[in-house]
Amino acid sequence: MTYTVIARSADSRLLGAATASCSLAVGNAVPALVPTAGVVASQAWTNRRLRFEMLRTLHHGGTAEEALAGLADADRDLALRQVAVLPVEGPGAHLTGSLCTPWAGGVAGTDFVVIGNFLTGPEVVEAMRASVVEALAAPGLTSTEMARALVACLRAGQDAGGDSRGRQSAAVVVADTLAGFQYPVLLDVDLRADNSPTPLEDLAEMLELKGRAHAAPAELVPSTEVPHRPEDEGLWSTVLS
Question: Could you tell me the pTM of the whole model?
Answer without folding.
Answer: 0.90
